[in-house]
Amino acid sequence: MQNHADNPSIPWIPRLIKSLQLSRQSPESRYFQLATCNAEGKPSNRSLVFRAMDELHGAIFVVSDLRTDKIADLRNNDQGAICWYFAHTREQYRFDVRGTILSLIDDGKTVATYWHNMSEPGKKQFLWGVPKTPRAHREPLKANQQSNDPPEHFCVIKFTVERADYLCLKGNPQYRHLYEKQQGEWRTAHVIP
Ligand SMILES: Cc1cc2nc3c(=O)[nH]c(=O)nc-3n(C[C@H](O)[C@H](O)[C@H](O)COP(=O)(O)O)c2cc1C
C-alpha cells in the first residue's frame, strides 16, 4: 500500500482526467454505467453522461430526472456502483459511490447552472412528459413547456467516490490499482489484475 499522506490530492483523479483528455475526440467516452438497488434489493443499471468532476472532493456529477427509478433507488439506498470504460485507452474504472440528489429546492443555483449548460436537444428530452408513462402511438415527442428555466423534475446527482478500482488492459504488463480511503487518507494498492 502506497501512502498518499504527503500528497493531499486524490490519486485516481489525475488518472481519470488523463483518460478523459486522451479520449476527448470520442463523445461516448463520457458515458458510464451506474448500478443501483431498489427497495427489494433488485439491482438495475443504466448509462449516464458525465458532466463534471469535483477534483478536490472526488465527486462526479450527472444530470437526471427526479421521476426516474434511479432517484427512488438512491433515496432508499444512496450506494451505487459506476463502471466506466475508455475504449481508446482500454481502461476501466469501477467506482463505489454515494449518490446525493440535488433538486431545484435543495440547490437551485447549481441545478440552474447545469440546465443552462445543456444543449437545446438535451433540454428537450426533459420536457417530453413523465418517463415510463404510455405515449401516443407514433406521435413525435414534443416539448410540453419552454426550456428557458429548468423544469421542477430536473436534477443533478453528485456521486462521491468511496473506492476506485482501475484496470488498464493496454500492453503488457497490464495494471490494476485499488484506491481506498483509510482514516481519511487515500491509499493505493497495485494488484494482479
Ligand atoms: C448514452 C446514454 C446516455 C444517457 N445519459 C443519461 C443521463 O445523463 N441522465 C439520465 O438521467 N439518463 C440518461 N440516459 C438514459 C438512462 O440510461 C435511463 O434510460 C434513464 O435515465 C431511466 O433510467 P432509470 O429508470 O433506471 O432511472 C442515457 C442513456 C444513454 C443510452
Summary tags:
single chain; 193 residues; alpha+beta; Pnp Oxidase, Chain A; 10-stranded antiparallel β-sheet; 4 helices; globular
Give structural notes:
The chain is an alpha+beta fold. It has a single domain, classed as Pnp Oxidase, Chain A (Roll). It has four helices and ten strands. The protein has helices at residues 12-22, 69-76, 104-116, 120-124; strands at residues 2-3, 31-37, 43-49, 52-54, 59-65, 79-86, 91-102, 154-168, 175-182, 185-191. Strands 1, 2, 3, 4, 5, 6, 7, 8, 9 and 10 form a ten-stranded antiparallel β-sheet that branches. The chain is globular, with a radius of gyration of 18 Å. The two termini are 16 Å apart. Mean pLDDT is 94; it is low at 3-7.
Q: Would you kindly provide a brief summary of this structure?
A:
This protein is α+β, with helices and mostly antiparallel strands and about 190 residues long. The chain has helices at about 10-20, 70-75, 105-115, 120-125, and strands spanning about 1-5, 30-35, 45-50, 50-55, 60-65, 80-85, 90-100, 155-170, 175-180, 185-190. The radius of gyration is 18 Å and the shape is globular.
- As residue ranges, the low-confidence spans are 3-7
If helices are DSSP runs of H or I spanning 4 or more residues, what is the number of helices?
4
**Percent in strands:** 35-45%
Domain count, please report it.
Answer: 1
Q: Can you give the helix content as a percent range?
A: 10-25%
Report mean pLDDT, rounded to a whole number.
Answer: 94
**SSE order:** EHEEEEHEEHHEEE
Head-to-tail CA distance between termini: 16 Å
**Cofactors, ions and other ligands in the entry:** flavin mononucleotide
- Provide the structure class: alpha+beta
Largest sheet: 10 strands, antiparallel
Give the CATH architecture.
Roll
CATH fold topology = Pnp Oxidase, Chain A
CATH superfamily: Electron Transport, Fmn-binding Protein, Chain A
DSSP summary, beta strand count = 10
